[in-house]
Amino acid sequence: MSKTVQPYVLAAVARCLDSGEYSDLTITCGSDVHKVHKVIVCTQSDFLAAAIRFGGKETKQANIKLPDDESTVVKLLVKYFYTGDYKCELERTSEGKSHQSKPSSSYTQNFPHTCDGYYCEAYLCPHHSCETHCNGSCTNFNCQYCSSETLNFLAKGLLIHAKVYELADKYNIVGLKELSKGKFEIGCSAFWDTDTFPVAAQYAFSTTVEEDKGLRDIVIFTIATRPQLIKKPEIQVLLKEFGSLSLGVLLKKASDHRCSLISGLYSDLKIICGPDSHAVHKLIVCPRAEFFARALKFGGQEAEKSEINLPEDDPLIIKLLLQYLYEGDYHLFPSPSPSPPLTPIIHPIIKNRPTHTPSGLPYTYDFPHTCRTPLTPHSICPHHTCIYATSSQSGTCSYACRSFTCSLCTPAPSPPAYAGAPADLLLHAQLYAVAEKYQVSGLKPLVTRKFSSACERFWGDDEFVSAARCVFASTPERDWGLRGVVTKTLFEHLGVLIGREEVEELVGDCGELAVGLLKMSVGVEGCACVSTPGTSVDGSSGGMPSPM
């Protein structure tokens, strides 16, 4: 009984949108004015509900303006509110055709087709079987639904689904977000080999945050499971533009086919260092290391054989370099010599901070904070309130907080204590030198942070002096990444270290180090060893160091 009545109820609700009867709210986007109903719209979108509940002009005029959105996509959003679904014009054109389902691998789609003899068993596409439709009499047959022009036309719906997903996320419409994701996934499985797929993939990665895996995982799966896509220039441009896409495809292949740095499957480049031979991939290595890209582009034997030999380097350091190129990080092997136990870290706290607003509401200080339903005014701290914002309000977020932390109320957390061994200091220094040598700029800041953390713990060990010598011997004078860390560490513990013979020899042998320490001791502002915009303590590359 209820199943027979339900369609009438849904149809009546949908008619309210078409007629505008009983409307108590308008949504304006461009030249489109949608007469809607608060009970339908606000119960499905927390953002729009908050706009009406806590807004100024919006509440008085019962009008929400969306000037920054695309009117055709907003129209689909409104349609979803009333029907639980949306169909773009492209879907309506193809409605009822079976090509929307996932194509079977048994279809040849070999057009134009001519039957071979009286009895033909060719399975061309979902819409035509020679055995049942033409009795084996096809001559130059083309399916009007599966032709390339038609497919490219229908595939444009992929981009629309990506735009709907973006808008659903913006206005916190959970159901619409899941629906558009499902449509996007079906579209990718059917239209991956069309001109629109790269466009839709680029839009999906450009309009979603890295933590939102919805559309991103679909794009990664589509590319990873269809190797022919990687050969397309437009897909290669995407892989270079979005590092997370390249890494995702590689990890997917590694999971499904063991295509990884270890297995070497699909490798098209070999890097040799000592006894080690690494089967790697140009698509991963070359965009992140300029030296390797130039060696293949302008080299002789390297380009011909797709082989690069690094006879002067330490095989262990090269292995760490390649690990970074593939994973965006590197991990040193555990040292056989145990390290002393870690000292507990005491985090500073801000005392005497206000506990209540002037009106008596409590500050929660629940950092990091993410706005969640139900959306009600929320006083995080004296500097931030979660509320629907108008143009005149500051310190508000329109309920868009994602892991928000107030820098004024929360001191910077102390970095975690280094968990390695003293021997790591020299490995970090050697890796930094290799990153400079092969122009892997993104690796240097990472090494600098790890080296700095290790120096804070192991400054009193003999390995610190050895690493310091390596730093000043293997880096140019203009690069104060690790040099600045060594100088700062020595200065902070000079009273203890200066009496050691090996430290005195280090300072005497390294003139730049002695000058840096002298400048710090007299408080010279031009001392570049603390931090510089050019090659600062974070190790980023640049010009000559300048005063901090």
Automatic annotation (TrEMBL):
InterPro entries: BTB/POZ_dom (IPR000210), SKP1/BTB/POZ_sf (IPR011333). This is BTB domain-containing protein. Residues 23-90, 267-334 form the BTB domain.
